[in-house]
């Protein structure tokens, strides 16, 4: 029919409103409809928003014109209802159909699977088999549903059904089975089925490479890729998967080879370019990474984020801030993950001014309010203020948050503890309990640490006991380390040793290190020697623990032992990693270590330092 052809042409050209006007004109002129008219109208309605009410109107008109019982029309209506999210309407129509073909059953099964109701989909599949045998399209949907069941047994059963009914010849079905086993995480079945395939297309290889990449098995990824090249031509997706796997492990050489291959074959896909950018950034080649970033014509949030993460991971914080400003001026709004990474970086550096700038930007833009990521972002901001020493600003942010999760409460408790305000941490913990928030394992680590830094021995011991008896949380090594540190700092070293001896788990080096630190403070020789012996048995190559032992020996006047410990360190070539500090000045961050002379104004810096020393 000419009218159907005209409407269909308008829809395919994107002129949906014009197609709807054509249908209205058709009705006004009294032009007769056929079973193909209403599917086109359904498509128009779907493209205009796809509301269930409009679908019902189309259905009523079709019934009035005598097309309600037509199988083709019924199938399109089922598909329409499914896409509108009205699965109950679709099932009602399906049950009312006098005649149903394979498309009817497959559409209905697809509806259930797509909305996550796999049980109903599988039940309908079994019912269908009493009337019709499924084809490859039906099996593709069923195999997709098996991924939702998370049952390898269910997947294996349908795999057997496919073989029994001679549907395994279809490459799409083969790949769907492979994808199903991959999503179920049954790696042996993936390898076994992949090895049995006579014909493997690029999709088969990509699925196999993808699962090993997600498991971090870069050796297997490289092996598969090398084997693949002699059989099929790897596409953009293949290169992207392999490059991403190489990036996670910092393997630059093969990544460069794949970059050359992509250039040689003229592959410049946006996702591929972003994965290359990420590879070079993670391997420390930020110059190349930045050049690739500039060459990408249309950058999305993922591209900006990859470059930003690259700067942050390599400590190029000034460049990261500059990129954020560039993004604000010409790019999309930064994702919450990008802002969180920047805020966390500034927290670690103590860069309060830069952290405030990010906070101000989030407030001005009202970013992510009402979103789950907003709570995580605000928690990072609270942590940034705490780490930068601005506890009052952290508490203001905390109090203004309408929704606080356990991570937010724990961060604030930890903040009070790190600033020596143990009583405030305990008060906040009590408030959290009254608010109905149940503490977790990490909350108690923060609370015990707060008590330790404030010398609140009784309160800390009470909190440690309440973990198990009141909240049902079994203490782990972190909790035992905290309670040993608490007792050690307060001079109760024999009690701390008794706690270690009663532990249900084997004490690690952190626990013995906490005890040895207490012995250094209170010059307790016998317990210190025992702790040092246990400590060096666990980590004989840790320079930091040798330094701690040397300091403990010095605190009790064991100078011969100090000399012996330092001699052992020298013979083993053990050197403690030097600490470093940083300063924020005029919007930039400058890092330095002891005796550092790398700054371009080093002479002026040391002149000022000498002046300050003379003023004492």
From TrEMBL:
Signal peptide range in chain numbering: none
Keywords, ordered alphabetically: Repeat
A Gene Ontology biological process term: RNA modification
PPR repeats: 1-33, 70-104, 300-334, 405-439
InterPro entries listed in its UniProt record: E_motif, PPR_At4g14850-like_plant, PPR_rpt, TPR-like_helical_dom_sf
Keyword Nuclease among record annotations: no
GO molecular function terms noted in the UniProt entry: RNA binding
PANTHER family associated with the record: PENTATRICOPEPTIDE REPEAT-CONTAINING PROTEIN
Protein name from the UniProt record: Pentatricopeptide repeat-containing protein
């Amino acid at each position: 029919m000419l009218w159907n052809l005209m409407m269909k042409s308008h829809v395919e050209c994107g002129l949906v409103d014009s197609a709807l006007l054509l249908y209205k004109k058709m009705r006004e002129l009294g032009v007769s409809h056929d079973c193909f008219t209403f599917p086109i109208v359904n498509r128009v309605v779907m493209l205009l928003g796809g509301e269930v009410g409009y679908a019902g109107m189309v259905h009523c008109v079709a019934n009035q014109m005598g097309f309600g019982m037509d199988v083709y029309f019924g199938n399109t209506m089922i598909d329409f209802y499914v896409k509108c999210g009205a699965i109950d309407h679709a099932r009602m129509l399906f049950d009312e159909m006098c005649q149903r073909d394979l498309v009817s059953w497959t559409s209905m099964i697809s509806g259930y699977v797509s909305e996550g109701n796999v049980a109903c989909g599988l039940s309908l599949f079994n019912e269908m088999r009493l009337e019709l045998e499924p084809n490859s399209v039906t099996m593709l949907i069923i195999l997709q549903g098996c991924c939702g069941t998370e049952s390898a047994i269910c997947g294996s059963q349908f795999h057997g059904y496919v073989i029994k009914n001679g549907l395994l010849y279809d490459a799409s079905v083969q790949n769907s089975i492979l994808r199903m086993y991959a999503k179920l995480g049954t790696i042996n079945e993936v390898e076994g089925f992949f090895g049995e395939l006579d014909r493997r297309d690029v999709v088969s290889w990509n699925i196999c490479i993808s699962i090993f990449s997600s498991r971090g098995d870069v050796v297997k990824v490289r092996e598969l890729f090398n084997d693949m090249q002699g059989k099929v031509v790897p596409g953009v997706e293949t290169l992207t998967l392999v490059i991403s796997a190489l990036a996670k492990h910092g393997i630059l050489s093969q990544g460069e080879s794949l970059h050359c291959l992509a250039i040689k074959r003229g592959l410049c896909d946006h996702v591929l370019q972003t994965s290359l950018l990420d590879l070079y950034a993670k391997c420390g080649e930020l110059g190349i990474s930045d050049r690739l970033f500039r060459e990408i014509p249309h950058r999305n949030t993922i591209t900006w984020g990859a470059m930003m993460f690259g700067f942050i991971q390599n400590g190029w914080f000034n460049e990261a801030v500059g990129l954020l400003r560039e993004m604000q001026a010409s790019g999309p709004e930064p994702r919450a993950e990008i802002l969180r990474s920047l805020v966390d970086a500034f927290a670690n550096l103590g860069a309060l001014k830069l952290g405030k700038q990010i906070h101000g930007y989030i407030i001005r833009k009202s970013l992510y309010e009402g979103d789950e990521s907003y709570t995580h972002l605000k928690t990072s901001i609270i942590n940034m203020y705490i780490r930068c020493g601005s506890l009052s600003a952290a508490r203001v942010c905390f109090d203004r948050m309408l929704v606080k999760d356990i991570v937010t409460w724990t961060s604030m408790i930890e903040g009070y503890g790190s600033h020596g305000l143990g009583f405030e941490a305990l008060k906040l913990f009590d408030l959290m309990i009254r608010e109905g928030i149940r503490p977790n394992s990490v909350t108690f680590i923060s609370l015990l640490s707060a008590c330790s830094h404030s010398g609140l021995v009784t309160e800390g011991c009470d909190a440690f006991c309440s973990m198990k008896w009141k909240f049902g949380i079994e203490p782990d090594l972190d909790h035992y380390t905290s309670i040993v540190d608490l007792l050690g700092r307060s001079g109760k070293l024999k009690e701390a040793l008794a706690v270690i001896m009663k532990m249900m788990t084997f004490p690690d080096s952190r626990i013995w290190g906490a005890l040895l630190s207490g012995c250094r403070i209170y010059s307790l020789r016998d317990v210190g020697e025992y702790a040092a012996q246990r400590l060096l048995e666990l980590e004989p190559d840790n320079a930091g623990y040798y330094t701690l032992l040397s300091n403990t020996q010095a605190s009790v006047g064991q100078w011969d032992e100090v000399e012996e410990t330092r001699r052992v360190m020298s013979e083993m070539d053990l050197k403690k990693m030097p600490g470093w500090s940083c300063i924020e000045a005029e919007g930039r961050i400058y890092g330095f270590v002891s005796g550092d002379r790398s700054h371009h104004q080093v002479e002026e810096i040391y002149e000022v330092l000498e002046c300050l020393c003379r003023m004492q």
